[in-house]
Amino acid sequence: DTAVSQTPKYLVTQMGNDKSIKCEQNLGHDTMYWYKQDSKKFLKIMFSYNNKELIINETVPNRFSPKSPDKAHLNLHINSLELGDSAVYFCASSQDSRRGKAQHFGDGTRLSIL
Amino acid sequence: SQQGEEDPQALSIQEGENATMNCSYKTSINNLQWYRQNSGRGLVHLILIRSNEREKHSGRLRVTLDTSKKSSSLLITASRAADTASYFCATAVNRDDKIIFGKGTRLHILP
Fold first, then answer.
1. Among partner residues B42, B97, B101, which is closest to A55 by beta-carbon distance?
2. How far is A83 from A38, CA to CA, in rounded Å?
3. Which of B2, B28, B43, B48 to substitute to test the interface with A, most A CBs within 10 Å?
4. What is the pLDDT of residue A82?
5. Which phi-psi region, left, alpha or beta, contains residue A51 (left: φ > 0; alpha: ψ -120 to 50)?
6. What's residue A12's pLDDT?
7. CA distance B43 to chain A (A)
8. A65: Cα within 13 Å, side-chain hemisphere
9. Cβ(A30)–Cβ(A83) under 8 Å?
10. 3-state SS string for B24-88
11. Choosing among B98, B100, B106, which should be mutated to test the A contact, i.e. which has the most A CBs within 10 A?
């Protein structure tokens, strides 16, 4: 009964490939997020959806496209993967998008580009 | 842009001692949160302190907030081996709906 689950846990692929990461939350939250954590542990927000609507879209290359089929799911598709995309990607959710609600995180997807 | 900065970057203490980590930020906040990240895992929310609060407790955790100095501290009392982790502060900025994380403090509890 994991609250926020993301798959896969590890993703190793070649440069130029296209890959997707899936995230699901069973907390009944309205808001979901994607974060990127680099090798120095710096955590940066990429996107946020509230009830399937995109509300935060940070300066992220067009190659990254989030999709939220319903409020319990938020997927991340990455086209033409580059070496610099290697990182840990975290999905998170919060009760709603009102300022600064506590967030619940998945255990991350470790993406390695060869 | 980064809002919170934790200090120190790394901290090693003996089991049973108290651990104190600090966070400084730049702009006005709605609230400040502390999270823990164990190796290979996601972040876990520990405590949230609102801008009109000065101190908050949760078990062995004590958080203070000084909005005049734009700083917060996290105190973990009677540390245990299981407290070994990275600790992040995150600020909810008044004009925004997102929270911004600092770079974290790596805490190592020595047996």
1. B97
2. 12
3. B43
4. 96
5. left
6. 97
7. 6
8. 8
9. no
10. ECCCCEEEEEEEEECCCCCEEEEEEEECCCCEEEECCEEEEEECCCCEEEEEECCCCHHHCEEEE
11. B98
Residue in the structure block whose two tokens are 């949760």: B58
pLDDT tens string, chain B, 111 residues long: the values are: 456 788 899 999 999 999 999 999 998 899 999 999 999 999 999 999 999 999 999 999 999 999 999 999 999 999 999 999 999 999 988 666 788 999 999 999 999
Q: How confident is the model at residue A1 (pLDDT cuts 50, 70, 90)?
A: low
* Spatial distance between the Cα atoms of A76 and A68, rounded to a whole number of angstroms: 9
Cα separation, A24 vs A104, whole angstroms? 12
Do A95 and A101 meet the contact criterion of CB atoms below 8 Å apart?
Answer: yes
Strand ranges for chain A from DSSP E: 4-7, 10-13, 19-25, 31-37, 43-50, 53-57, 64-70, 73-78, 87-94, 104-105, 109-113
Tell which phi-psi region holds residue B3, choosing left (phi > 0), alpha (psi between -120 and 50) or beta.
alpha
